[in-house]
Amino acid sequence: MHIETSRMMPAFSCDQMFDLAADIERYPEFLPGWISAHILQRDGDRCDVRQVVGIGPLHVDFASQAVLSRPQQIDVHSAQEPFSDYRLSIHFAPHLPGGCTLRIAADLQMRSPLVQQVVNRLLPGSVNSIVGAFEARAHQLYGVERA
Known about the structure:
Helix content is 29%, strand content 48%. It contains three helices and seven strands; from the N terminus they run βααββββββα.
């Protein structure tokens, strides 16, 4: 299943939003569904990550690789069980004056057709919640008052 969503973040720069999204080990503090996230190894702009994510009643423990392309994009990929393919891309595009448009694209293909049905129902709401959580975290970290 493929889902995309975006939101303008006029109060925050792409660098700020990138830094927030690149802080993978803090995801459980503010992202809905993230139970744990640990960077196992770093090599330049690449990270091997171990994550546990819960979407509704489904909890998934998996390894993934993240590529951090500052300040435009973060790409996460896994083909480990229970996925046949997991891709999460976070894009940061400048928005004048000085803001950023955050776009998240997720592709999740599960090996189990039954689990895929659950993901298909829950993923759209989960991706929208992630965008909202990034925005709320930016307000918390950077101290900009909400309009």
